Amino acid sequence: MKYKRILLKLSGEALMGQQQYGIDAERLMQYAEEIKTAAATGTQVAVVIGGGNIFRGVQAEAFGLDRVQGDYMGMLATVINSMALQSALEKINVSTRLLSGVTIQRVCEPYIRRRALRHLEKGRVVIFGAGIGSPYFTTDSAASLRAIEMDADVVLKGTRVDGIYTADPEKDPTAVRYPEITFDEVMEKNLSVMDMTAFTLCKENNLPIIVFDMNKPGNLQRLIDGEKVGTLVTMNASSAAPLLDPKHSSLQPALDTPAEQA
Ligand code: UDP
Fold first, then answer.
1. pLDDT tens digits for the chain (262 residues)?
2. In sequence order, what are the beta bridge partners of 129?
3. Could you tell me the CATH number of the domain that includes residue 69?
């Protein structure tokens, strides 16, 4: 086991699966199983889920709503997703606690740092709902902040892309993946990993981020076992050279020197 404590960030959109809206039951159970396997190895697992499959604050204006109201709606959307994941985990006998940044006392515990730490120490999967509980933030920022507060070893950002690329791989077929990259390079190259607030929190607190494909079965476990999966963002990456073959990037070895890249 490489990591003693992880914070897993899942986007709300990922929960939609092939659907256009809401929660895909199969995808939800798949994530629950992956988390169960990870927790069974003894790694302490905290999870933050987004709400983009239901509502995002930026959509508020299109509805003629106030932005802050929209952000609270987004936060409640994350609570709905968190409740769904909690239920899916408990269905397969994983002990969980849901802690919310917005107090909803019938449904979940309020977020209290020391309590969250205690749950993790007891081996419970801790789900943080409602982001950080304040408007104008995202669940990426909540993931970074809670990971720092929990003294997690790493933020694992599960996406549908298998890492950070030189350009958007869904739009640019020549894009290549970085196996590792530094915080500074991400900023210099203007690559999108997380929003700036979330990213800066990780950078300033020297908290590594791994961006990986959560939809590929077993990836979460591979990461916990110490395998190189996705893209690792650290202060000092050992090799920040992009991989060669854009189509089979995950199969290519990393190149060590700039000369090898030429
Ligand atoms: N949100 C917020 N404060 C937070 C976390 C979330 O206001 O601390 C709101 C914000 O409107 C955001 C929405 O909740 O758009 C859903 O979260 P997010 O967009 O991060 O979800 P994801 O993109 O990961 O699905």
1. 789 999 999 999 999 999 999 999 999 999 999 999 999 999 999 999 999 999 999 999 888 999 999 999 999 999 999 999 999 999 999 999 999 999 999 999 999 999 999 999 999 999 999 999 999 999 999 999 999 999 999 999 999 899 999 998 889 999 999 999 999 999 999 999 999 999 999 999 999 999 999 999 999 999 999 999 999 999 987 755 565 544 444 433 333 333 333 3
2. 100
3. 3.40.1160.10
231: tokens are 């893209």
Distance CA(218)–CA(112), nearest Å, equals 32
Nearest atom of ligand 1 to the alpha carbon of 70: 11
128 lines ligand 1 (CB under 6 A): no
Range of the domain at 125: 5-261
- Does residue 145 line the site of ligand 1, with CB under 6 A? no
Q: Per the annotation, does 43 bind a ligand?
A: no
Closest CA to 4 of 40, 45, 36: 45
Question: From the CA of 6, how far away is ligand 1's center (Å)?
Answer: 20
Number of domains into which the chain is organized: 1
- Residue with CA at minimum distance from ligand 1 atom 18: 50
Which residue type occupies 146? R
